[in-house]
Amino acid sequence: MNRAARVFVRILREAIRGAGKDALQPRPWDGAARVRDIAAGTWRGKARPQIKSSGYVIDTLEAALWCTSQSASFEEALVLAVNLAGDADTVGAVTGQIAGAVFGAPSIPLHWLEPLAWRGRLETLAAQLVRLSDPSM
Predict the structure, then answer these.
(1) How far apart are CA 11 and CA 3, in angstroms?
(2) Is the N or C terminus of the chain more exposed, i.e. has fewer CB atoms within 10 Å?
(3) Annotated binding site
(4) Binding site for Mg(2+), residues?
(5) What domains, with CATH codes, occur in the chain?
(6) Which helix (H) or strand (E) holds 97?
(7) Which residues bind Mg(2+) (predicted)?
């Protein structure tokens, strides 16, 4: 697993365990300079025009963290992410994972959930995955 993915997994794990936005706090990290910068939270001081929406893993992770940190809700984070333009689907997908973990599943707008095919099955599988990843949950 590459270093950026490890940062991503650490953030998801902490957020799912209840840390909320505290999971986005800067942490020391080994590895390439850009990954260290993201883990250290250098994206926090950036303005929207400085956030890149590309398919490059570092840009995507930075954009997703920035969008989630700038938002007060899951919906706000996702709308901000996809409106960065560029690689909107990739940044939106990663932001959705982080924002979902930070704000919790109940924060996902019902009007987004209702039209999902196999919604019940997806919710069951998601709950099973969380339990498998951390039996204490």
Answers:
(1) 13
(2) N
(3) 87, 89-90
(4) 87, 89-90
(5) 3-109 (1.10.4080.10)
(6) helix 88-103
(7) 87, 89-90
